[in-house]
Fold this protein.
Amino acid sequence: TQQLRIGLLLIEDSIPFWVAEQEEYYQAHNVDVQLIPFLSALERDSALAAGAIDGAISDPIGAILFDQGTGRLKITSLGLGKTPAEGVFAILASPKSDITTVEQLKGVEIAVSNSTIIEYVTDKLLQSQGFSPDNYNKIEVKKMPIRMQMLLSNSVSAATLPEPLASIAVAKGAKILLKDSNAEQSLSQTVIIFRSEVLDKKKIAVQKFFRAYGDAVNSINTSPEKFRALFLEKGRIPAFMADSYPIPVYPQPEPFSVELYQPVIQWLVTKGLVNEIAYAKMVSQDFMSVQSHDD
Amino acid sequence: MGRKRDIFIAAIILVLTWEVVALLLDSMALPQPWEVIADFLLKIADGRLVDDFFISALRAVLGIFLAFVVAVPLGLVVGAAPSWRKRISPFIYLLYPIPHVVLLPLVIILFGIGEFSKIFLIALIVFFQVLVTTRDGAKNIHQNYFYSMQTLGATPFQVYRHLVLPATLPKILTAMRISIGTAIAILFFVESFATAKGLGYIIMDSWGQSDYISLYTGIFSMAILGFILYMLLDRIEQWVCRWQIVR
Amino acid sequence: MGRKRDIFIAAIILVLTWEVVALLLDSMALPQPWEVIADFLLKIADGRLVDDFFISALRAVLGIFLAFVVAVPLGLVVGAAPSWRKRISPFIYLLYPIPHVVLLPLVIILFGIGEFSKIFLIALIVFFQVLVTTRDGAKNIHQNYFYSMQTLGATPFQVYRHLVLPATLPKILTAMRISIGTAIAILFFVESFATAKGLGYIIMDSWGQSDYISLYTGIFSMAILGFILYMLLDRIEQWVCRWQIVR
Amino acid sequence: MMIDIDSVSLSYGTQRERKEVLNNISFAIKPHSICAIIGPSGCGKSSLLFLLAGLRQPDSGKIVVKGNPRRGTILQNYGLFPWKTVAQNIGLGLTLQHMNKRQIAEKVTALIAEMGLTGFDKHFPSQLSGGMQQRVALARSLAIDPEILLMDEPLSSLDALTRERLQNLFLQVQKNKQITAVIVTHSIEEAVFLGNTIVVLSERPAKIVQIVDNPQAGDLSYRGQEHFYSRCNMLRNLLREDKNG
Amino acid sequence: MMIDIDSVSLSYGTQRERKEVLNNISFAIKPHSICAIIGPSGCGKSSLLFLLAGLRQPDSGKIVVKGNPRRGTILQNYGLFPWKTVAQNIGLGLTLQHMNKRQIAEKVTALIAEMGLTGFDKHFPSQLSGGMQQRVALARSLAIDPEILLMDEPLSSLDALTRERLQNLFLQVQKNKQITAVIVTHSIEEAVFLGNTIVVLSERPAKIVQIVDNPQAGDLSYRGQEHFYSRCNMLRNLLREDKNG
Ligand SMILES: Nc1ncnc2c1ncn2[C@@H]1O[C@H](COP(=O)(O)OP(=O)(O)OP(=O)(O)O)[C@@H](O)[C@H]1O
Ligand SMILES: Nc1ncnc2c1ncn2[C@@H]1O[C@H](COP(=O)(O)OP(=O)(O)OP(=O)(O)O)[C@@H](O)[C@H]1O
Ligand SMILES: [Mg+2]
Ligand SMILES: [Mg+2]
């Protein structure tokens, strides 16, 4: 059997992968999947570039930037983020600042990580509030924990953070100004990506993988509490919100839609980070067609 | 023993300073020492930390070992033979100042994402520090010693064995000290991929969750790991450099 | 001059090796040298890279300077005075092996997000390397020199000025070499917050975008920056250590 | 400057493996006189000089020097600083006393000439021959106008003629400046020519074999006289007897 | 082992600042004889020995040694290795020749005894007195049974009695093993007692003042004879004249 090595970040989006492993769905579908944890996108992308992993969990911005139109990888499936409610990002104000409304963000420096989903969500959220790009300044802080710490110590007045850091920051007194879970449309998603080469050579294995993944999604959605321990561990949920943290409803794997793709590629093109890449070139449709809806 | 007392006093002073600074700053970014020490003891007691400790120690020590095996002989030759020095130094000067962690993708291509890549990355970074220190040490050996060796009809290998190596040994030990510090300090980087074990992983993971108590438990463990290695090294030094003590 | 030729040959060999490896691996993670050099020249020509180069150079040099100003005098005293050595060494051994980059949040709380925090972080990491090297260097000064100083009625300060400092100078230069490598190599870390300038920023930014050509342009620039600093240092060494050359 | 050495003992090594080097040594050195110390190689002469220079403390007994005289010391291995030039080495003691640069330069130039080292002021010690290094060490200790001068085989690497010339020079300086001097030497002739008193030490651990009064010492014509040779022979016999019996 | 020194010249320093040290030196050393070299301090004796030992190359001229004899060399500064014990230092040459450990130990023990260093075999050089270090250096060069022995002031730090004893020992070994030896010395008496030929060098740059044949050298009774003293005086005058004229 062919082996698939999949790079995972320790976030709640990757729970189905772990559930499939724990429940032995991979064996059931006769596919050998090896899950490899990474602590940040940087190391994951390095492994991907090196060909040491076949697929990974990522976000659309990261995936497109990695590919640059070269066809090195394809977005194979949507993970979490089909609906706005599944959004995990928030723009927060420092506990010590007197910013309480979105309007006050004008002219303020907001800590983000350039050319990532963080910057994307920040732009989208603020522009949906009628901000123009020169209404606000972004300040680059690559590392998430540092960004949060800078926010809490008032080194910056505002910052964009994902969960669970956003919740931790709130617990420390930071104020949420905007959340993408409150947006009108989904701004942030996770996606499952595979290297094109793998999709060619191990097509069957990838299909089997998605079937196992689908089984895991079903299991979680049927009895989420059964997997809370695994969820808390692999999702790295802080202890203080362990019990209350809602386990999301995971969608079945499905192709990344044009509606979700368009705004992302446009933002990237406008920023001059990539040239226009056709939807069909970046996104694969093949692997869901065989998906059996047996729930 | 006076030595034990000195260490004890130093530890007390450090913890007290830490406590005072923590109280003054009153920030989650610096928890108080007792919280950290309690967490540390708890995790040691229930065995969770022990594995991490040993796996990190192993990675660091193997990385250092690998670096030394290559860098010390090379450094001795490059330092002691002016013609080699002239030729090899430009390579060192061009290759040392690049941030080797950035070569991670390359390392992964060459060695995969297993243990060896981690150890290799440690070795790569430590390698240059050892090479430069050994080279500079071997360079400063007084010419008269070479003359003495020559008059005794030593072969080039014997010159290294009986002169260059022992004369450079104190500097090699310095290099070892620097390596220990470096190797442990970069664990946090090499343990952030394809592993869920090790002090570096603990640190990066807790950092990502802003769990500063665990973070400092990791730092605290690293300090202890380094300290143990340093104590071992001081023992070794006392043995191999006896001739420097007696004078 | 033979020296220039050696450097030239080394550069050629490195680029050729790189080319061969790049061709063999055929991976996006290692672009070919000509792509990188073209990118480098282009960015130099249109001035984009020049700023980054100088700002990184400045940060590295200031960080090293700051570390030396504190670590050298301390290292000399700790190395040359056994009573100090016994007392201070435990602090070094406990504090050196922790990954200082993890203390960044603390540094930001103390010094804000401006330039000084960056320079301080470089200084902090380099500090221990300089301290250990200087200390070990000062420790190995032969007792007879101290006796000579004593017979001439030197004050403690004069002993440092006329004996300990010049005798340790070759090791301080070694420390300087290690520092240059380290300081440049950690730029990628200290330039990842609150700045959009510097070779480190370029590297992290391109890495994040998997833009490996820019990434290697950054690495390439760092190699050149380090190389320039090393050449300067060799000049300085030839001057201050004349007495070692003539023998 | 009276120097009083009172039942001094010294050992080296650890508790487990002690080597006794000086065994209950007592003698006095008269002000403005020269005391020569002779004895077999390895007996403890240099160790005794270390004690006199205050570089080590005796295990028991004490050494009393009245007042706080300026001491010049020449150790057996020259003790020159390799990173300083000849001129810097010679002037070091003066530099440490914050004498002004011009005065130092004058004094150093004069000493360099007297030592026959003209033209070598900018050389480093490693560029000198053994005998030249020794002369630099001598010049360095004379530069500070010492009241007490302690010398450990200061002329051992010099050829016979240079040695005699520097013995004469030393005598002249010693008389002019009223220096109290101790010279450790393995040359019996040198001891007899220079030493107003000659302390003869035994094999290790060094005990005093005899303290010889030598009133004619320092007389430039002494060297040729028969009396000089008989003195030398007497000392030689003293040493030989100690060795054999 | 015939050694032929043919119009050898040597300078130190850079193009800009050259110091000529040896100026056109020619002489031959007969097989199995002892050649003593004397001359004023700093004239170039050690430099000449460096050339003989093959440690430096002359600027012009050449040095011819027939065959490839084992050479023992004692440099002026002992050249002991501080990280090796007395026994290890003495045995080093043999270790380098891969002699077996037991044989080395035997030979070393015998030499240590002859040098009067018994009990110090495990000491490091820094724990020895100057004269003891010099004896270790002598022992080290004798250990390898050299065919040619080159010695730069090998006995300069020894007291008169030890020095005489070791001169006698050296003579005995030299005769037994038919060693060709060169000894640089600043003691005219030593040169006359040991040197079958005595090469007298002038002040720097060293030229040959005279080559003195000294047939009685090596005769143990020579030292007491009147002829011995007149030889010494003759050499002293040679040196003095060169200096003054
Ligand atoms: N490395 C060097 N660089 C420059 N000059 C040197 C060097 N070595 C020796 N000299 C010079 O060469 C001359 C001869 O030195 P050498 O050591 O041969 O003298 P020597 O006859 O052995 O004197 P001594 O009796 O004092 O040992 C000296 O003037 C010395 O300054
Ligand atoms: N640091 C040391 N550790 C141990 N033993 C030592 C040390 N220094 C000297 N000794 C021993 O002390 C004894 C006397 O040494 P010292 O140097 O005083 O002799 P000396 O009379 O000056 O001999 P020389 O005439 O050979 O210079 C020697 O046996 C030597 O081995
Ligand atoms: Mg002595
Ligand atoms: Mg000489």
About this structure: Residues 57-210 of chain C form a domain with the MetI-like fold fold (CATH 1.10.3720.10). DSSP finds twelve helices and no strands in chain C. The mean pLDDT of chain C is 89. The pocket of adenosine-5'-triphosphate (ligand 1) is lined by residues D 127-132, 157; E 12-13, 19, 21, 39, 41-47, 76, 186, 204 (CB under 6 Å).
